UniProtKB/TrEMBL annotation:
InterPro entries: DUF892_YciF-like, Ferritin-like, Ferritin-like_SF, YciF. It holds the Pfam family DUF892. This is Uncharacterized protein. CDD domains: YciF. SUPFAM superfamilies: Ferritin-like. Residues 13-24 have a biased composition (Low complexity). Residues 1-47 are annotated as: Disordered. Residues 1-12 have a biased composition (Basic and acidic residues). PANTHER family: PROTEIN YCIF.
Length: 229
């Protein structure tokens, strides 16, 4: 017959066994390896799922998505260029350079409107996509102005920066024209061709200005310095 003493002893023994099981469970190297393996598997599964989701999203992308991306990208660039030009115009000295940059800034305003018209043709809201390439070109232009803005080579430095901008635009619009052509977006292609013609003309004008007068004027200081030496 079980006594009260026996029952207390049983409870004590069961509690001790539980404690031992808990202790051995948390400290067993095999169990902890298993836990780590399970965690690693879970992380790997998550990563695989994420990669699969990314791959699936990319699988559904096409040339029209790339065209839309390029449109947002150049829309961002044109707006930033429009904002940056006044500083260059202010720093420019040669009247033909001031006139060329001023007129190209007006053209840029029209280009922004043309890009908005293309968004509309696509049935999309105009949305700028941050473009690090143009940010870098414009930042370099700013730092060149700091270094050369007060020098005899200021105009040459401004043309140097502006031609980097024009060439960036020409390459983007060149690709976009081909995309629009392939996608059968005739009206959009026409807008892009109009803009591309303006960018190419601006670039040619800057080359002529540099070669016909600005570069030669920028060598004056060196000659004077040489004569004084
Ligand atoms: Fe432009
Ligand atoms: Fe331009």
């Amino acid at each position: 017959m079980a006594t009260a003493k026996d029952s207390t002893k049983d409870k004590t023994t069961a509690a001790a066994a539980k404690k031992t099981a808990r202790a051995s469970g948390s400290k067993s190297p095999a169990a902890s390896v298993e836990t780590r393996q399970k965690r690693a598997q879970a992380v790997a599964a998550k990563s695989t799922n994420r990669k699969a989701a990314q791959a699936a999203a990319q699988d559904s992308k096409s040339l029209s998505d790339l065209f839309e991306h390029a449109l947002g990208d150049i829309y961002y660039a044109e707006k930033k260029i429009y904002k940056s030009l006044p500083k260059m115009i202010k720093a420019a000295d040669h009247p033909d350079l001031v006139a060329a940059l001023t007129s190209h800034r007006e053209e840029t305003a029209g280009q922004i409107e043309k890009l908005e018209a293309i968004f509309e043709l696509l049935g999309k809201r105009a949305k700028a996509e941050k473009c690090e390439a143009i940010d870098g070109i414009l930042e370099e232009g700013e730092s060149l102005l700091e270094d050369f803005g007060a020098s005899v080579a200021a105009d040459a430095a401004i043309i140097f920066s502006c031609q980097a901008i024009e060439h960036y635009e020409i390459t983007r619009y060149g690709s976009m024209r081909a995309f629009a052509e392939a996608l059968g977006l005739d009206e959009a292609r026409q807008h892009i061709e109009d803009i591309l013609a303006q960018e190419t003309a601006a670039d040619t004008q800057l080359t002529e200005l540099a070669e016909d007068s600005v570069n030669a004027a920028a060598t004056d200081y060196d000659e004077d310095e040489g004569a004084a030496a």
